[in-house]
């Protein structure tokens, strides 16, 4: 059975739990990623004589498994990894972690247990059989771990990792062709763990040649492992200081030139000039444009990259916003780069994206082929190519993100929008525009984005005359023109003319939303949107239903998502990127695992229902205590099976649940009414409210009191002694009884409480039993599902239904926005100021009259 990506991620992060307490979070990676590497190459290449990675004798993961419980497990794991490193020239790459370190892993039995458990977690992962074309299971798992390591490591240790979402933007805007040959080279001078290089390679289907340099030894080792795990073993990664000792040079001593470059250098690196003399740089990196300031290295890395590009080379570099507007030496360099027309684009990113800093950053896109010749006239470039003056294309993408814990993250929709707008050079109000060079010169070559793009929202200004005389300003209604264009008759049906420049509302504010939903214009619009969804379904349903073993999940979702995005292009009011995001969210949360499973095991996986793994949320539970069993539908959730095959049983359970809810509400209200001071239930509360046991104890106390009140020979005593909630509930025997102590009145309340409590308990038991009976029936149904039924349940009831819901939600959003604004305007100007003043005067007069009657003025 295929391993779900979500399950793989969970298992890997669970392995980190075994290491907590003995080391800093930044050190987890040295152990977990090494073990992932050993497991992967052992599963993939063991006993394969022609493999790129050789697994030597006594150097595999299976040899580690044999050590579980061994008193010398740490030392022997070091030797196993050492053999694997020696056989593949990976010394200093995979053997950095000490598996026999008592300070980090514990002493004696603690180390043995910790390492045995750790190996056991990886032992459960089967990484041998990966029949999914184009899938990068291990690469994605590596990215998942790196992101979590960076998150837990905090500011000081997270700089080795560039968020995958930002890497995707750079990989796309740098302009590498999808069919780039292996002769095309990509360079990252500060490659960290290699994520940027790999994202660029993915854009070109992995055929390009990758070169990287990284100063930190451990991080360079991570990058080498990352290349192998991403099936790029020929990538060349070098460990050294890029600025002081660039490794990639030509025979004549000059810098090697590359076709493309991407980078996320350390922000404002203070020690950038250590080991070199910038004014007399042997590689001439600072001769043309100037020397960066001694305590801020952003432009040092940028100029190194420019020098490392071929004449037609392109680069995309992440830098702090300060490079766009800082003065002095940086201003001179910026001016020179602009005059040489090297900077093609500037993309402003949201703040708090990166793990090393919370400050906002930007992406500088450079095209060296745009550079001006020595006579100062433009050869070509963005402006010249379009018949315009040279300039810079700017994007303000600072507001497009989602919160993720204490960091911000770009969504799929944000990435797609940035890339679409940049590659198409599409000007969007408040988001993107081409800024010609004369305008930049007029701003003294300051590239601060707010100077050129106004992203502020218009202020919602109140109309004084409307507040004084009433009516809704037509100017405010005119601002909703985008809606009136789509719904041509709606405005006149919602509003009627008042005096010049103002309108009256014809529909009460509370009824506006329902009125819009029922309006013929809106119904026609909603139908047209649903038609597009239906057309998308008809186009892709055969592909969905035709998935087979060996399918390419990434190509599959790309085709579906890109077409959905395209079909909603130009649809008024509908944010096509929002619809696209809903599909991509569903893909990440659920659909990706589904497609991966089908690509591995076929549609037969839909008949599988299994017991839940440790820590996994079950779809349903049967039984209690030791007999409790938790189940998960491998591909099809039980809820979908129930909706299709057992709707009546589910409806009856829901009705019973409704009755249970009513009974619980009655009990809660009764308890609230009788728990005040001096009430019958006062003092009978436990940690979670009144308890049945406390009530029963109080009943017995009262029955004992009743014996003391009445003579033992009377019938009343006998009755009091034999009281139960059953015979007491008749109240018949109480007639004529004098109850000076209030015993029977209190018993009356307590027995009512117990009756309500038992009703709730009985109904809870009934609902649980009915639900478990249904689950047992469903459990028996799975093995008998036909391929056609599995296909219907997954494609129609699970996938397509989710997309259709997403589109309906987007239509609902449009309704909510329009109705919300109309209601806001109606409420704002509902009562003119004179009317409010008259109302205040009337209320004041009423108060005076009451005070006079009360004698306050006497």
TrEMBL record:
Highest taxon above the source species: Bacteria
Domain DNA methylase adenine-specific: residue ranges: 135-459
Record bears the keyword Manganese: no
Regions crossing the membrane: none
Lineage of source species: Bacteria, Pseudomonadati, Rhodothermota, Rhodothermia, Rhodothermales
Residues forming coiled coils: 646-673, 808-853
Keywords per UniProt: Coiled coil, Methyltransferase, Restriction system, S-adenosyl-L-methionine, Transferase
EC code: 2.1.1.72
Pfam families noted in UniProt: HsdM_N, N6_Mtase
The family this protein is said to belong to: Belongs to the N(4)/N(6)-methyltransferase family.
Gene Ontology terms for molecular function: DNA binding; N-methyltransferase activity; site-specific DNA-methyltransferase (adenine-specific) activity
Name recorded for this polypeptide: site-specific DNA-methyltransferase (adenine-specific)
Reaction catalyzed: a 2'-deoxyadenosine in DNA + S-adenosyl-L-methionine = an N(6)-methyl-2'-deoxyadenosine in DNA + S-adenosyl-L-homocysteine + H(+)
All copies of domain N6 adenine-specific DNA methyltransferase N-terminal, residue ranges: 10-121
Organism from which the protein derives: Longimonas halophila
GO biological process, one term: methylation
């Amino acid at each position: 059975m295929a391993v779900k990506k979500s399950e793989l991620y969970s298992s890997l992060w669970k392995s980190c739990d075994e290491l907590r307490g003995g080391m800093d979070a930044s050190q987890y990676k040295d152990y977990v990623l090494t073990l992932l590497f050993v497991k992967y190459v052992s599963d993939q290449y063991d006993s394969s004589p022609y493999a790129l990675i050789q697994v030597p004798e006594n150097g595999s993961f299976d040899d580690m498994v044999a050590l579980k419980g061994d008193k010398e497990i740490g030392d022997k794991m070091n030797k196993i990894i050492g053999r694997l490193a020696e056989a593949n020239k990976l010394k200093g790459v995979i053997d950095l972690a000490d598996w026999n370190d008592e300070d980090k892993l514990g002493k004696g039995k603690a180390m043995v247990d910790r390492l045995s458990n750790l190996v056991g977690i990886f032992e459960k992962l089967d990484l041998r059989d990966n029949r999914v074309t184009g899938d990068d299971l291990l690469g994605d798992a590596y990215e998942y771990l790196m992101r979590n390591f960076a998150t837990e490591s905090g500011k000081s240790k997270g700089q080795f990792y560039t968020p995958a979402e930002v890497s995707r933007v750079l990989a796309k805007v740098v302009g590498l062709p999808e069919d780039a040959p292996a002769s095309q080279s990509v360079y990252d001078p500060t490659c960290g763990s290699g994520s940027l290089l790999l994202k660029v390679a993915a854009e070109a289907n992995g055929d390009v040649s990758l070169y990287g340099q990284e100063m930190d030894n451990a991080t360079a080792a991570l990058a080498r492992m990352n290349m192998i795990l991403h099936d790029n073993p020929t990538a060349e990664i070098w460990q050294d200081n890029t600025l002081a000792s660039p490794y990639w040079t030509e025979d004549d001593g000059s810098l090697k030139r590359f076709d493309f470059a991407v980078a996320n250098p350390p922000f404002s690196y203070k020690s950038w000039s250590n080991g070199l003399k910038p004014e007399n740089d042997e590689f001439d990196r600072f001769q043309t444009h100037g020397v960066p300031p001694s305590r801020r290295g952003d432009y040092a890395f940028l100029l190194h990259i420019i020098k490392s590009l071929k004449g037609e080379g392109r680069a995309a570099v992440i830098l702090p916003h300060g490079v766009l507007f800082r003065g002095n030496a940086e201003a001179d360099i910026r001016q020179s780069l602009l005059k040489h027309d090297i900077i093609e684009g500037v993309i402003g990113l949201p703040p708090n994206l990166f793990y090393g800093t919370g400050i906002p950053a930007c992406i500088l896109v450079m095209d060296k082929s745009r550079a001006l010749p020595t006579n100062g006239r433009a050869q070509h470039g963005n402006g010249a190519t379009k018949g315009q003056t040279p300039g810079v294309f700017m994007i303000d993408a600072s507001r497009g993100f989602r919160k993720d814990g204490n960091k911000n993250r770009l969504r799929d929709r944000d990435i797609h929008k940035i890339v679409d707008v940049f590659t198409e050079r599409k000007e969007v109000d408040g988001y993107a525009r081409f800024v010609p060079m004369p305008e930049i010169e007029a701003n003294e070559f300051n590239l601060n984005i707010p100077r050129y793009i106004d992203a502020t929202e218009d202020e919602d200004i109140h109309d004084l005359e409307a507040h004084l005389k009433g009516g809704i300003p037509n100017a405010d209604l005119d601002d909703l023109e985008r809606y009136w264009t789509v719904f041509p008759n709606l405005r006149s049906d919602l509003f009627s003319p008042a005096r010049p420049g103002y309108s009256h509302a014809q529909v009460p504010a509370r009824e506006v939303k329902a009125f819009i939903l029922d309006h013929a214009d809106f119904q026609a619009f909603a139908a047209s949107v649903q038609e597009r969804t239906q057309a998308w379904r008809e186009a892709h349903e055969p592909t969905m239903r035709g998935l087979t073993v060996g399918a390419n999940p990434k190509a599959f979702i790309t085709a579906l998502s890109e077409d959905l995005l395209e079909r909603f292009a130009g649809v008024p009011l509908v944010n096509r990127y929002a619809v696209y995001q809903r599909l991509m969210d569903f893909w990440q949360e659920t659909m990706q695992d589904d497609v991966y499973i089908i690509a591995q095991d076929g549609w037969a996986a839909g008949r599988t229902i299994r017991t839940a793994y440790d820590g996994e949320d079950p779809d349903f539970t049967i039984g209690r205590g030791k007999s409790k069993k938790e189940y998960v539908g491998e591909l099809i959730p039980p809820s979908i099976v129930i909706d299709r095959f057992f709707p009546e049983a589910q409806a009856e359970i829901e009705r019973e649940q409704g009755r249970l809810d009513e009974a619980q509400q009655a009990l809660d209200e009764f308890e609230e009414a009788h728990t005040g001071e001096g009430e019958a239930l006062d003092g009978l509360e436990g940690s979670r409210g009144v308890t049945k046991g406390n009530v029963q104890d109080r009943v017995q106390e009262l029955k004992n009191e009743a014996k003391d009140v009445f003579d033992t020979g009377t019938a009343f005593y006998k009755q009091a002694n034999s009281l139960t909630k059953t015979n007491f509930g008749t109240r018949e025997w109480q007639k004529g009884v004098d109850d000076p102590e209030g015993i029977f009145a209190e018993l009356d309340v307590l027995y009512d409480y117990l009756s309500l409590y038992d009703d709730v308990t009985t109904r809870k038991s009934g609902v649980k039993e009915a639900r478990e009976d249904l689950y047992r029936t469903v459990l028996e149904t799975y093995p008998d599902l036909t391929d056609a039924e599995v296909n219907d349940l997954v494609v129609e009831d699970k996938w397509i239904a989710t997309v259709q819901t997403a589109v309906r939600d987007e239509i609902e959003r449009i309704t909510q926005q329009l109705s919300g604004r109309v209601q806001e305007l109606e409420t704002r100007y509902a009562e003119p100021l004179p009317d409010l003043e008259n109302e205040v005067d009337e209320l004041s007069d009423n108060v005076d009259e009451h005070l006079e009657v009360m004698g306050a003025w006497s």
